[in-house]
Amino acid sequence: MCLIGREAEAYERNQLDYYPKLVSSIPFTPTTGARIGFLPTLSDIDKQHVISEIITVIKQQLNERQWSSWHGLFSHKAEHIMWANTGIIVRHGCQFHWRNNDYADFNDFLTSMSSRKRKNISKERAQIYKAQLRFTFVNGDNATDEQWQGFVRCYQRTYLKRSGHKGYLSAEFFRLIAQTMGESIRLLMIHNAKDELVASALYFVSNTHLYGRYWGALSDYDGLHFEACYYQGIEYAIANQLNVFDAGAQGEHKVARGFYPVQTYSSHVIDHPALGDAIAHFCQQEQTHIKLYMEQMMQQLPYKTSN
């Protein structure tokens, strides 16, 4: 969402420094939410005034401190509209979220799909059943040190295999979130028939949403990623009557598994006038492509009828 690749290249081609820059977001968490803490008594007019003042200060700070830019990522729609009203650059993106249409259980969810899509999911899950794996959700504040250490091993091994390093988040980070927000965490522990840990996944939960964030595996099984990161989350959301399952950024392969395309929003201030104009033009053109892309993804949803 923060245009890092193209933007950084543009700065480098023009022999300008892209870093440092300012970012308003939840680190490592591409989740939509409020980015400004307003008093509940403020009117929309007052909120708009506050955001306009914030943009004025941001522009002053960029100029005075020689920072390249500011990026407000994944704000919710109502707040995004207020950012856009200040005339700054806005960008649209797309994620994929699962919706709970009052399903009784996972089979009820499957019944809402076309026969071919339903069979594909059942086939994927059958691979896991044959492997005799056991899936257990553990509340973060009840998880033992051994379980947290097991999750960290899984997380680090998978990052190392994929990226050549052990991940951006340290074992200390996971220890701290277990202490400070354990009640909002669900650890999925996955064991084989010998009761050996083979994989784990980290979820966060609110009153209405389930958020899937990190996972890792110590052993390789066909279809395990889909089971651990999608199907187990869907089952948990249904069992606990949660409205939405947000399994993370990207991944149009989620559409075939029942996840809807959802528009996301970001806001940007670029200090360099010429680069700012170029980036604004790109974002305007991109909005048309995002809209078309989402329409195409909606047409590929696996449901018998539009839910």
Descriptive notes:
With 307 residues, the protein is α+β, with helices and mostly antiparallel strands. It has two domains: 4-25 and 42-96 and 264-299, no CATH class; 103-242, Aminopeptidase (3-Layer(aba) Sandwich). 44% of the residues lie in helices and 21% in strands. It is built from nine helices and nine strands. It has helices at 4-13, 44-65, 77-84, 106-111, 115-130, 145-163, 171-181, 224-239, 273-299; strands at residues 22-24, 69-73, 89-99, 134-139, 185-191, 197-205, 209-217, 244-246, 259-270. It has a nine-stranded mixed beta sheet, sandwiched between helices. The longest helix has 27 residues, at 273-299. It is globular.
Enumerate the spans where pLDDT stays under 50 for 5 or more consecutive residues. none
Order of helices and strands: HEHEHEHHEHHEEEHEEH
Portion in beta strands: 15-25%
Biggest β-sheet, characterized? 9 strands, mixed
Mean pLDDT: 93
Would you identify the CATH architecture of the largest domain?
Answer: 3-Layer(aba) Sandwich
Q: In CATH's first tier, which class of the largest domain applies?
A: Alpha Beta
SSE class: alpha+beta
Q: What is the number of beta strands?
A: 9
Strand line-up of the largest beta sheet: 1-2-9-3-8-7-6-5-4
User: The CATH topology of the largest domain, please?
Assistant: Aminopeptidase
Total separate domains: 2
CATH homologous superfamily descriptor of the largest domain: Gcn5-related N-acetyltransferase (GNAT)
Helix amount, in percent?
Answer: 40-55%
Number of helices: 9
**What Rg is obtained from the alpha carbons, in whole angstroms?**
22 Å
Distance between the termini: 28 Å
- Outline, from the CA principal axes? globular
